[in-house]
Amino acid sequence: MSNAHVVVEADGGSRGNPGPAGYGAVVFDADHVTVLAERRESVGVATNNVAEYRGLIAGLEAAAELGARTVAVRMDSKLVVEQMSGRWKVKHAAMIPLADRARRLVAGFDRVSFEWIPRKENSYADRLANEAMDDAPLVDEVRTARAAGPAGVVNPPAAQPSTGPAWTGAVGRPTRLLLLRHGQTELSVQRRYSGRGNPPLTAHGRDQAAHAAKMLAAKGDIAAIVCSPLGRARETAEAAGAALNLPVHVLDGLIETDFGDWEGLTFLEAAQQDPELHARWLTDTSVIPPGGESFDAVRERIEDVRRDLVALYPGANVLVVSHVTPIKTLLQLALGVGPSLLFRLHLDLASLSVAEFYPDGGSSVRLVNDTSYLA
Model-level pTM? Predict the structure, then answer.
């Protein structure tokens, strides 16, 4: 098939987003009639976006195996088409490895074009993706858990034992997030708002990071390390990475709240500068500090991070190194409680909390603000 032109159509889906997911891909000859190859596979628990990218990758791999030199990709995923065409940025850091893998495959052809098509024109790949999801053993398990309702207690099959409290009905192995707050900085010593500013760890902060790293290395069984892009979090994460012999992946969504004009101020100074606004900010998560970011906005990006981590690391332990507000928000999501938690929960520097998120949508909190390893 030297110099052959082919058409790749791909799709992916998730029943729950995240939930049991699968992809489908088909390679047509240039006539768009003759089917040259099909690919379909269940990918466990993942988001729609992950499944769609996996479908694209499978289609490109099949085209390469056939010796194609030019490829016309047709998908009903606007996100994937626009990102691969370079018109949209890959905003979620968790998607970057998938987009990079697809781009490397694209580079192996003479030419690849991307076209968005309506879902009804992508029926072949859609059918394959649904067949892949139907084949997934996890589908029936998740359906059973949901059918039982909040009060139902489900006995999970031996292949997917529940590791959560039996009375919750949570099914499957959770993605366990080990939530580590960064170590001490000068601003934290002075109890000042420290958001997008980038103070380094103090000597004591580096010592805290080393103690946390030693504890985590002793625990082991950590699949990945992700962290905020800010220096204090990266320093803390890199200490853990060295101890665990794991790379550190930066996720922009884990950055601390933007406190705007209150950055570097103490509580009292901010209250004196904007008394009415500051008072409302302490009780209303939609209130935005001058030039800053609301807690509602933080929650929105943290929800995206949680979905991506659960999709990319199903059933695994992931170390998440971040800041007070993102960690509190993840705990809030796991507990399913209101925003009052943000104002009432205290988290020490370099403390560890643990939240679990299950493939059926369940969640639990196993640990909050542990600092025993710092003593």
Answer: 0.58
